[in-house]
């Protein structure tokens, strides 16, 4: 055990860092796919790619929200 660290503070700090990290990873992945690979724009690729991109975006957002709910309810 580290000297000076309360176990509850360490647990809370880990929750905060994990929440921020997973949120940023999700945002960077969606921005990269949507803007850099242009899956968010229906003019560059067939419409099925745009529909799949937004379905994956919504599904992964729901999974991220579920992760946040499960992490913070404890």
3D architecture notes:
- The longest helix has 30 residues.
- Helices cover 76% and strands 0% of the residues.
- The mean pLDDT is 94.
- With 74 residues, it is mostly helical.
- It has two helices and no strands.
- The radius of gyration is 17 Å and the shape is elongated.
SS content category: mainly alpha
Tell the overall outline: elongated
Separation of termini?
22 Å
β-strand percent reads: under 5%
Tally of extended strands? 0
Q: Which sequence of SSEs, written as H and E, runs from N to C?
A: HH
The chain-level mean pLDDT equals 94
Low-confidence residue ranges: none
Instruction: Tell me the Rg in angstroms.
Output: 17 Å
Report the major sheet.
none
Number of helices: 2
Helix amount: over 70%
Describe the structure using short key phrases.
2 helices; mainly alpha; 74 residues; single chain; elongated
List the helices and strands and how they pair.
Blueprint: H1 7-36, H2 47-72
Provide a brief overview of the structure.
By secondary structure, this protein is mainly α. The protein has helices at residues 7-36, 47-72. The chain is built from 2 helices and no strands.
């Amino acid at each position: 055990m580290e000297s000076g660290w309360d176990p509850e503070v360490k647990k809370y700090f880990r929750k905060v860092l994990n929440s921020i990290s997973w949120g940023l990873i999700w945002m960077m992945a969606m921005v990269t796919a949507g803007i850099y690979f242009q899956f968010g724009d229906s003019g560059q690729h067939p419409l099925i790619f745009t529909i799949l991109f937004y379905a994956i975006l919504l599904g992964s957002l729901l999974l991220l929200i579920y992760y946040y709910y499960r992490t913070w309810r404890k």
